[in-house]
Amino acid sequence: MTPEIDGVRLLRRLTTLGQIGAFEGGGVCRLALTDADKAGRDWLVAEMERLGMAVHIDAIGNIWGIRAGQGAGAPVMVGSHIDSVATGGLYDGALGVLAGLEMVETLNDRGTATEAPIAVAAFTNEEGARFAPDMMGSGVYCGALDQGEMLAVTATDGMGVVGEELDRIGYRGSDAPVIPAAYLELHIEQGPVLEQEGVRIGAVTGVQGIHWTEFTVTGQTNHAGTTPMALRRDAGQVAMRIAREADAIAAGNGPPQVATVGVFELSPGLVNVVPETARLTVDLRNTDGAVLEAATARLTAFAQAVAAEAGCAVSIREMARFAPVVFDGGLVDKVEAAAQARQMSVKRMPSGAGHDAQMFAALCPTAMIFVPSENGLSHNIKEHSDPDDLAAGAQLLLDLVCTLAGARA
Amino acid sequence: MTPEIDGVRLLRRLTTLGQIGAFEGGGVCRLALTDADKAGRDWLVAEMERLGMAVHIDAIGNIWGIRAGQGAGAPVMVGSHIDSVATGGLYDGALGVLAGLEMVETLNDRGTATEAPIAVAAFTNEEGARFAPDMMGSGVYCGALDQGEMLAVTATDGMGVVGEELDRIGYRGSDAPVIPAAYLELHIEQGPVLEQEGVRIGAVTGVQGIHWTEFTVTGQTNHAGTTPMALRRDAGQVAMRIAREADAIAAGNGPPQVATVGVFELSPGLVNVVPETARLTVDLRNTDGAVLEAATARLTAFAQAVAAEAGCAVSIREMARFAPVVFDGGLVDKVEAAAQARQMSVKRMPSGAGHDAQMFAALCPTAMIFVPSENGLSHNIKEHSDPDDLAAGAQLLLDLVCTLAGARA
Which domains does chain B have, with CATH numbers? Predict the structure, then answer.
């Protein structure tokens, strides 16, 4: 049997990192490449070194520590990120990295060697909250994003450029990425499904495809009292119909289709003025790429039809188009089996959110482990997960790595 | 026959006043009780004095000039306002006041006397753009609003109090309001109906009742990818349904029912976050008070039902409730007849917007004359009306005043 991890020690590390960039009363702000991110990185590197790992940093600031194996093959990598959104919690990203440290410390304590090296990685700017796009570090690591372009990205608030900020905080490295033998990422679910169903472990089968579309409707502004309905070209009501259609598409397709209208703005935005323009965004996700394409096609055709009917113009902008990612079926089977071996309840499920793991799926066998999020909350200072669930996830990670890396009894 | 007014002179006065607070390229900003408003008032008072009128100012800053009659009865009053919204046009309000001056100058030029005195009035803060509520001066004049309360009103931007601003610009007077024998107001339609139907004169039958209601829906914020539709409490979609229902109510009731959703806000307002709260306003108007009450009752019941169905809470705030105002039927008949006598096309119609005239309806026989607005635009620097239409309206005003005040041949 694999050694037992120390759940209290895991929690202590989560709390310690959680004090860096902490808000009073809970939550953290460790936006990528800020002073808080640097402080988190410094602490992480010190922990890796304390655990005897060889620390590597590449040109985009990804950090990975390697615990040597008895053989010289490719490492089994576990990883995630330690940057946060502006009002983030303690577990999103940090769990996957710090469970890696806990895993290494457990192996060290027991003197357990592995055939393959083990790598624990923290990728730069997974959140994309300060610099777009998200999953920037893992994207560059895996070759999906261009390193030069990413180094030149300016912050969304205009304050800072990736390359300059890496230099400023001292994390522009020169190590070459290594292709892992396998990649595993432990993460909080950031959704309500496991909690609702009373299941401890999600064996993640892949990442939903994501289509973000922005609709800008232009009609005519008019006085709300003096303009009869028949003479209006109300951009707002056209936009409402598009929003309702997005909801109808989700209902029609059924799970796992989701549709979200998160941004909706009217201009001029006055009580007694018929809106001249309306802008909304629709976030459609599905694990089935073809169904997702059809959903987006149906919505854009609907938008054009209702705008024309109302005498309005609509411009449609593709903000994001990510095809679904499918994880390695054999590795997902192993996650499921490992959970069952520990008598942990487990459910195969897709991820509704993007993760660094999706960048690795094209590079090596990749899978993810989810643990429940209380009330499904994440990207929120109230983000919380049960300590027992966190420990269970870390244990499973260790169990799997011991298998994949060939642990010696 | 009544003397003919001078359309060019009327237009010259509109242009002259329009230079006070003018934007480059068109439009004016003469917000109530600002320096620009004071400059407009100073010019108006000088014009009245030049025309030999006795100028009166009351405690809320309403200005009225009186051209003496041969008898001593109550004056026939024409009036409107010279304040504007922040981005206003040259005609909204100004037309009704300056047509009054043109009328007096025409009578002076022809040496035409009237039995009753004639009053030309400009009421303080009709727009309500800087100080709420609108129609403040005429409301105080007619006793519908409390003078002390109105003097204590603070500007919507926090900069200034009505009484102090009146002192500052020198327009807190002490004259007592006089109850007119009749009140007539010439105004641009501010809507598209006359233009669309090719009619020159609107004989305004009354003012639509107005119900403004604010709905604030509270649900639960969630991640747009990780939260299945069935587990959401999406405040935004509930709000969209309320907005669509408002539109359905207008369609169901038919004209003159109008419904406008002018404000619609989501929070947190991010592409990939299910909205936690949504706020919208619905502006419902109808000339039939009972139908309007029923429309509002239907909408609020709908809002409560759909919010409950979606697991959301909704709070409903009455922002404004104005009952419809019915003008004097006999006087409206006179407007219509006077237009027909001049071979002007005329249409009886309600006003969709509020006007000073509605305050007088309870005090004395009251009516309004509308002339077409190009493209129905108002509260807009592009506000425009055809000079011939403006002159036609002013002529009609003079014709009616000559009748009502008893002009001597």
Answer: 7-207+324-405 (3.40.630.10), 209-322 (3.30.70.360)
